[in-house]
Amino acid sequence: MLAFLLEETLGLIDMLYSHFSQQITSYSVKKPHLIVALSGGVDSMVLLRLAGMYAKEKQLECMAVHVNHGLSLHANDWEVSCASYCKELDIPLYIERVNLKVSPQESLEEVARKARYHALEKHMRANSLLLTGQHQDDQVETFFLALKRGSGPAGLSSMPSIIPLKTGYKCRPLLFTSRQHITEYAQQHQLTWVEDESNQDTRFDRNFLRHEITPVLSQRWSSFASAVSRSAQLCAEQEALLVELLQPKLQLFQNEFQGLSIKQIEPESLASRNMLLRLWLKLFAIPLPSQTQLHILWNEVAMAQQDANPCLELGIVQIRRYQGYIYCVPKYQDVSLWKKTLEGKIALPDNLGELELRAKFSHHEKGSILQLRAPLPNEKVEVRFNVIGLAPHPEKRQHSRKMKKLYQEYEVPTWQRSRLPMVFYNDELAAVAGLFVCKAFSGQECELLWHKPVSE
């Protein structure tokens, strides 16, 4: 009997490392640089041991990063525990301490997650694999949370095994391994780990599922977790197929500024149109919209009356319409009250770049350049935004026109109009950066150069 148990134990050890090794190999990254996201919990401690074994076998670099959020009274103890085990395994450990600032619109959990990954990504290289300890039981919880939100195939796909980052990849090599197997592995190797007391608080949805729901389901159906994992994989495959089939259409329906053509998408079926809208929004790295938000986007923005100026806010972005296209734009700050004396080069507000008034140069320089006369000694030059009631007379034009009409002629989208720097000599409009110089201020003594950021 003892021999049987020993054989079973050794089998589990070999199986878990073999599975881990296969997962890392399947990522097809040549000479990967392994980075373990080490929290000190059982999942990450087991992950660290497996990564260390793999790195030693394959002669690869391996390191660990522990992010201390300072949220728990035991946070410093966890840090010590991580440092102790890394020293035992001879794996370099980097400690990242973060300060969290939570706005009323954000959850502490989400802010902590973003801060954690920002800290981890600082250590990434092109060939780095950032290894995190999510397992099959975590996948089941994620599936249920998506189900609660009424998600489609994209949401029900839950967590993928590998995700490309700006640099390197984030990988979950234990995603098809149960929590029970991970814990048994840790016990067999006499590992010590920390327990985050917040994981017991069932006021949090994930903890409620973990402690109250999934144990009951797994007790009734022993293979429930693996079945949910398969369903998530099937949803991921279905989503990937839809993307593959619709991606060529999406590219065809966009202009050079990533605006989506209303005329081209309108004949599509409701299902196809909604999927195309989701794919388009995904380009801007924002959370997927709900069915209600998609309905509003199409019916109240895309299909609004011709003379309307519709706007839908989705988190940190806005959906706007202009000349038959819908655009996804940032939520800009109101700069209408901003003003500043223009002497040489000045920084503009809200990431609008820099504005420069200088003597005319002979060589070409990147940027939006206008030529105008030099200010007189008694003329104060000032930059303002969104000054109302103006009817300027651009040079090379026969008449003055209201700014609204000029914006339309110059094809300036409605959301950009309040963000164009206006240059005044005393209280008279001399130029609108990027558009025109007023006739009374035409000349060639000076250049007005707007160094715009790429996003503008």
From TrEMBL:
Pfam families in the record: ATP_bind_3, TilS, TilS_C
GO cellular component, one term: cytoplasm
Residues of the signal peptide: none
Compartments where located: Cytoplasm
Catalytic activity annotation: cytidine(34) in tRNA(Ile2) + L-lysine + ATP = lysidine(34) in tRNA(Ile2) + AMP + diphosphate + H(+)
Keywords, comma-separated and alphabetical: ATP-binding, Cytoplasm, Ligase, Nucleotide-binding, tRNA processing
Keyword ATP-binding among record annotations: yes
Principal location listed in the UniProt entry: cytoplasm
A GO molecular function held by the record: tRNA(Ile)-lysidine synthase activity
Superkingdom of origin: Bacteria
Swiss-Prot/TrEMBL GO biological process terms: tRNA modification
Binding site for ATP: S39, G40, G41, V42, D43, S44
Entry text on domains: The N-terminal region contains the highly conserved SGGXDS motif, predicted to be a P-loop motif involved in ATP binding.
HAMAP family: tRNA_Ile_lys_synt
Name recorded for this polypeptide: tRNA(Ile)-lysidine synthase
Gene source species: Aliivibrio fischeri (Vibrio fischeri)
Gene: tilS
